[in-house]
Each structure stands twice: as structure tokens, then as C-alpha cells.
User: What shape does this take?
Amino acid sequence: MQADESPSQDVHIALRDIRKNYGKAVAIRDLNLNIDRGQFTAIMGPSGCGKSTLLRCLAGLESITTGDILRSGRSIRHQEIWEREMPMVWQSLALFPFLSVLENIEFGLRMSGVSKGERHRRAHEWASKLGLDEYVNRSIDQLSGGQRQRVALARCLVTEPSIILLDEPLSALDAHLSLQMQAELKRLQRELGITFVYVTHSHSEAFSMADKVVIMNEGRVEQEGAPQEIYLKPATSFVARFLGGSSILSCTVKSTETDEVLVDGKDGTFRCTSDEFRTLRVGSKINLIVRADQISLSQESGWADNEVYCRVVGEEFVGALVNLQLETASGSKIFVQLQQRDLKTLDIEVGAGVFANWHPEDCHIIN
Assistant: This one.
């Protein structure tokens, strides 16, 4: 779609050929993205990829260098911050310590000229919805982290916007409280039908809450799609490495004459049966990818069609799961995710030798 075309009625925000320069430095380059009405969109990427800059451009806190931002088909590129009506929940929350909880919640209404009675009514209504009734007269420094988070949300929601921007709002919370707030955010978003644009570093936040995940790299959209789609089929090596938990092996196609395509890697020949291998030619160079949860371990050879001997070089315990990092004789990295009970059964420790095994249907190609 060209920049001057109108998006469909379902598209709430359309970013068209967005570029943002800071002098000679390019923060966002030729970015195109549709955000549907009522959609929870999570934007992810490494530090410096441009995700927070993109959010600030949406809010009007930064001007774009070239391109256009369309809201319901109309350009908002030259609108001021207050005209865009896209309140933001900041990472720091940006609450006013000299105001009470109620005064913080109603602040946006006061700036909009809403009468005192009406803004009190609406502020109390949202305080009640977010479980803040008993705290409305308290100062901000008398609240817990989760309570402050709710005040920041109420301050945005009280103005009844159709879009809310959120810049890593849960990053300062502990793990337990973060999980609670994730559930609360998703519930509110579904009930209210508000479009959420949510920037985060956290894979778990994005994949548990979002309808659509956008992965950015060096100011561009590397991949976008439903969380399950991106998890199961990362489009590029960058996305796979950013998300983690996948082994990527450089291979050359050896044979395509049978139902199984054979590929040669540095540590052996592997069998592949996924449809994506069917059109490959002998001699083609590919990156073969296998997800960590599709690889099993054995202390003896011959347990699966594909196997490679490795040494365990690292382990990470994550609740009931264990993430293992293995290294092959060629130096390739293999990542495996097991249940703790399975690891105990194998009796494998860091430094031990082990065979990594996977099935032909679990092989995929990545750019």
C-alpha cells in the first residue's frame, strides 16, 4: 500500500514509510505497519532498535522526518500531542507526588476543562474499577508498585481514549506482581475494546497479552504476526536469535530424490521432511532451525533420525523447566528445553557428553 492510500476501516493506525533521523543517525527507517482497531499490539526488539522512538512519534512527542501517520485514514502527522488523544503509560509512570491518587487520576480531565463535579465522578468510577477506592486520598508515595501502576492506568482510561500507548509499564514490578498486572491489562483491553500499543523487552509479556507481536531491528519491522505464528515460525535468523530457544545450523542440500531431503551440516547429515524443503535444489545453502522444545537428549546414539554429539556448556533453571546450552564438535550451539524431572532421569551435568536428537518433521528453514 502506498503512503497516500486509505487503510481499511479495521485499521486504526497506519504507519506509512516512517523515517526518523537524529542528525545523521537513523532511528527508524522506511517503516510500514498497520495497527487494527481494538487490537493489542506488542512491539519488541533489542535496545536501540527504535521501538520507544516509534511510540514517541505516535504520541507526538517526536516529529517524524518523512512518511505519514494515519488515524482512521486521516493524517495526524502535524497534530499536536493533545490533539492526538493517545495517552501514554510511562515506564516511570510519571505520577505527580504532590497530588493525591484522585487528583492524579483526574489530572487529564482538569487539563481538558471538565467541570469539577464531572471529573470527580469519573475519577472515582475508574478508581473503583481498578480497585483503588480506599486509596483515593492517599499520596503516591504511600502506594505499592502495583497500586501506582493502577493509578497510571486509571489516569489514562478516565479520559476514555480509543488508543493507549504503553512504554514498558511493568518493567519495575517484581515477577509475581507483573503476572497479576498482565492479566489485568489484558482483561481491561478486551472489556473496553481499546487499541493498545505496548512496547516491551519481555517476551513473556508480549506473547501472553498481545494479539499481534511486532519484532523490530535497526529501525525496521523484522517480522509481525500472531504470537504463536512468530514463535513457531520465526521469519529470519535475527528473530530466532532474539526470541531465543532455537538452534540454527548452516547446511547444504545433499539430496532431494526421496521423501526425505538430506542436508549436510558441519556435524553430520540431517533428514528433513517439512514441505518447505521440497523446492530446494541440491547444493543450495540453507539455515536449518529446530526449536529447543523439539530436541531430546540421550546418552546413547540411535534414538532418532537426526542426532549430533554435544557437550553441555550451560544450564538455566526456570521453574519446572531447564534450558540447556550445548556445543557440538564444530562449535555450533544447540539449545534444549527439558522438564526438570527429565534432566534428573538423564543425570546430565555441565561438561557431560550427550546426543541431541530431533525428528525430520521438526526441521525448518530460516533466512
